[in-house]
Amino acid sequence: xxxxxxxxxxxxxxxxxxxxxxxxxxxxxxxxxxxxxxxxxxxxxxxxxxxxxxxxxxxxxxxxxxxxxxxxxxxxxxxxxxxxxxxxxxxxxxxxxxxxxxxxxxxxxxxxxxxxxxxxxxxxxxxxxxxxxxxxxxxxxxxxxxxxxxxxxxxxxxxxxxxxxxxxxxxxxxxxxxxxxxxxxxxxxxxxxxxxxxxxxxxxxxxxxxxxxxxxxxxxxxxxxxxxxxxxxxxxxxxxxxxxxxxxxxxxxxxxxxxxxxxxxxxxxxxxxxxxxxxxxxxxxxxxxxxxxxxxxxxxxxxxxxxxxxxxxxxxxxxxxxxxxxxxxxxxxxxxxxxxxxxxxxxxxxxxxxxxxxxxxxxxxxxxxxxxxxxxxxxxxxxxxxxxxxxxxxxxxxxxxxxxxxxxxxxxxxxxxxxxxxxxxxxxxxxxxxxxxxxxx
Length: 441
Fold this sequence. Notes:
The protein is mostly helical. About 80% of the residues lie in helices and about 0% in strands.
């Protein structure tokens, strides 16, 4: 075997190690994120902790608010303690918070547990994406990140089976105890995961970075150009100069509706389907199909956007999502309903990512990170609002309007991104990295 082949082999094994560890961490992230929606029908039926539909919506929003906080603070914290330590802390945080939910004797304690879990969940995903990007083999960054993103939907599938196998015979608390199991993964992650090379270089720890790169025969990244706070605010102001403010607001509104739809459906799908007359087993099967569709959609949307344009695909995807969500309010034969749920998952989970692709394509290189980051941040408020909205509709005995309300959110995103697509971009730029787009979601 030649020396170059040996080096390539060792680098590939390191990439596989990092991706594998991050994939498991994101799997647990998805499990914890989706478990509440999977057990919610049972909790409402049993009136666990005295939860009402309205309060259930509030609880769903607590987790997404925590995710907003975690996502916004992850970069700052990672710059201080390192990406590896932050990942370890995030997994430990949402695992322990699930334990708090499992022992909760009141809605207040349960809500506190979901909020704390949300902070860990929101901080983990962008950090994991940064880690796999650091160690991805040359030319395979997008493929590596795409593979990592499938873990989140795999966690959603796992949550449905955990609820299906444990909730009826044992109770809802057992499902949250399962979400504590990732705590056993924490020492493995702490011991086996190497620190981010980018972090070591950025912190001036060049010796450690060179030693780590030499040990695993990987390329040492260049030191990043760091921006001062004033420069970051100047980049934000640039999104509103001239006629750019209209385009920026259209992107923000589209992102708000998109994440309202994503997290609203993720939280309420099993409950709404039970309200349409399906039994709990079928309702949880819908969660499995929805997340399988999400995995397929992530792999399909990027190729379609490369060929037909991200703005066009995003608008079409949202239109198809709205149609699929609305159809779920119609009682159809079970096989047809399964098909609609799967296809809705295909389009819904990738339509939002194509908003980020559009923003990246139409931003100048210097403004791209700011534009995508703020579009994602504004969308996170929709993620908080979606679960709350579903709960309010059910509390008012308008559960049948739940799918209609979420479908209208899809229509609004289709309109906003469609109008933005029709406007001629003033600052055309090469496509941004696929990693940044997925990190924003």
